[in-house]
Amino acid sequence: MNIDSIQNGVVLDHIQAGKSMDIYKYLHLDRLDCSVAIIKNVRSGRMGKKDIIKIDTPLELDLDVLGYIDANITVNVIRDGVRVEKTHLELPQKLVNIIRCKNPRCITVAEPQLDAVFLLGDPARHTYRCAYCDTAKDRKR
Amino acid sequence: MPRNIIDVVDLTVEEIDELIATAEDIIQNPAKYQEACRHRQLATLFFEPSTRTRLSFESAMLALGGSVLGFSEANSSSTAKGETVGDTVHTVSCYADIIAMRHPKEGAPYAAAQFSEAPIINAGDGGHNHPTQTLTDLLTIHREKGRLNGFTVGFCGDLKFGRTVHSLVNALSRYDGIRFVLVSPAELKLPRYVKEEALKKRNLPYVQTTDLDSVMPELDLLYMTRVQKERFFNEEDYLRLKDSYILTPEKLERAKADLSILHPLPRVNEIAVAVDKDPRAAYWKQVKNGKFIRMALILKLLDIHV
Fold first, then answer.
1. Catalytic residue status for B52
2. How much is the ipTM here?
3. Global model pTM greater than 0.90
4. Would you call B110 and A131 a contact, using CB atoms and an 8 Å cutoff?
């Protein structure tokens, strides 16, 4: 299966196999007018298999969203067909309006216009805690 | 940005020691403080009913020579018209120098602090936190034991929704040599995040049990709590669990002679009235201490030195 190389844009590599649609949704890639290729279950020496997303336009990505979904993703920026930047992600310390609190007693449920803020609690377990009510949410795996 | 107290751990151990020292000085020399907050106003915004906390805040501010304004139920504020917590607090912070707020929703004071021009004190948010009760508890323990370290403390009752328990466990976990005994029905155990953050992370010794009698002889402090009807979505669960633990003079026969019994009040059935006469009962002293520690906290947040 061949997918053409892109000239100017972003390649998200080393996505855990099966997670590419989550990323497509969280990053709102459906709103883009350019070509977006989602390549699933690509063979990988390190990971066994992985997903890749190629976005055929330069754009600013929310790295917090990506880091939250999968901190092992690498973000490659392509200009004139050449990779000019490669970023390794990490778990963000703070998430704003990426996930919502599910605690029915939390003020952010009663007043959804408030920013939903989560803070990294336990990095080993990828646990985030609602800044308002402390309810823990494990990272979606 | 004003200084807010949303969680007891917003205060360092040194700051808590300082507050306890100020409260002790207020108890010894009340006249020295009676004009300290002259021309200052405290707003008490109680979106949920309260007797002790609201009145102790108001009494504290009046004893400091300040004045108070506010409301004692959500229906008498614009909340009834659908106003957000942020807008209500933003409005009130234009009229008051400091705000004490209680709200049934967890995290409401954290939300309020983002919109307030005045310091916010969390006076209880749902089943989450109640830092000024914790300061009251710490002052009481300090007055009863002469120290805040080196004892075995038992928490009994509703440890799941008991916000005073969460705050006090957090606060005590920062002192040395404390062993925690957690007594509750299986359904009302201390939440995992409190255990992980306060106890496991610091490798503090704790035991969980459903049997109060078996651990009674080990305790230096017993913190009783009420099973709170207002925290249950299902009345059937409340009725099943409400009388899980009832402290009686007979149960105290096996306790240490220098045990101190605390309770944030109000109580329903969990401490028999006969226990009030036991010299180990410290909960009425706790009520008094609540006023003095809140006086100390108001002075600190308004940066007033006497």
1. yes
2. 0.85
3. no
4. yes
